[in-house]
What does this fold into?
Amino acid sequence: MNRHVLVVEDRPSLRKLMRRALEQGGYRVTVAEDGHEGERRARAGGFDLVLTDLKLPGPSGLDVLAASRAAHPQVPVVVVTAYGTVTMAVEAMKRGALDFLEKPVEIDDLLALVASAVAPLGTVGEGSPLPVFQVPGGPAIVGRHPRLRAALKLLRRVAPTDSTVLLTGESGTGKELFAQTLHALSQRATGPFVAVNCAALPASLMENELFGHEKGAFTGADRRHAGRFELAEGGTLFLDEIGELELGVQAKVLRVLDEGGYERVGGGETRRANVRIVAATNRPLQRMVDDGTFRADLYFRLEVFPVDLPPLRERASDIPLLARHLIERIAHRHQRAIPHLDAEGAALLEHHPWRGNVRELANVLERAVILAEEPRLDAAALRPLLHPTGPPPPGTAPTPEEAVRQALREADGDKPRAAETLGISYRTLQRRIKEFDLEGYPKYRR
It folds into this structure.
């Protein structure tokens, strides 16, 4: 392949071992002996891969990573870490590293990882196999972009443990798919996977939904009700949009994480929660902690192992792959012939910003498949289905109230659709509707 690899390693014996193994594997190799030289060479570029130790004389491997990412963001970086310092490797992946390799370095593992990292992205044509990550019992996750592969790497590392995981990323990036995959990879895979959207229920009902209630706990409670913690016994509880929880309910969730116990509403018996919690949010929880709207102690308990999912626009090379996968799935669901996404149509999708991420892409493609009159989907068929992408003229950006009005008009009053368009939760939209006195707009108020 004659791919060019930069190896940054201060130990002469390991540097020599990796250089010889890579050269025998057909790679061109340049070496750097410390962080200063590693930063300089990474900035200069000309490499297909940077392989750097984390602990170096001078600047660290994280500094080499930052230099490479700043100068050549398309070049993957793999970090090498000593056994027992995986936490540093996780931090490196949060900063953009593709993968990590633990010492002592096994040659077969090194060559397999490097081969995977420098594999050309290329294009996927009709009939070519799609890069799909799927485990038994889990959903399909499509893509080969380094940031997606890095997130999957983290998922595979944490899955066999019982650690709490926090999935972060914009709305529509596939956080529930990742949560389902995490469950399928875990030791709890034979147990239930229970999901609850914390933004979908009023605050007054959330405690009851999570913890259940006893008979007679309140008017209308004519029987005992099992909450989501109870239903998830022995499995995984996925708390989506956890940033929408009220402070009082946050305190009760924190108690489960700290002590493993909770009570049903109206009950005095402490129940034990044998569940693994996976949380997700599209909101900046650290900023919410600073604002006093999210508990700091709960935030630190949730952020034991964060996994950040990239927005679709930041892995644009995956869009044609993902689009073909979605088209096939949608066509099967509607019992229609599978239309061919041609090169121009794929290019149009690839350059669209997709503010609603994968969810928006799936909605567009569903309309396209249903409306398709030709055996192919080209740019002409897809362009009318895309939302305008151009920036507003200077000084004409809509106010928050105008943005809500516009989203409600486009959705014909459908609040979930309007929230999706705005990239906010349903509960946040409800608050803004109340704030701007837009209840019933536009169907019943003009």
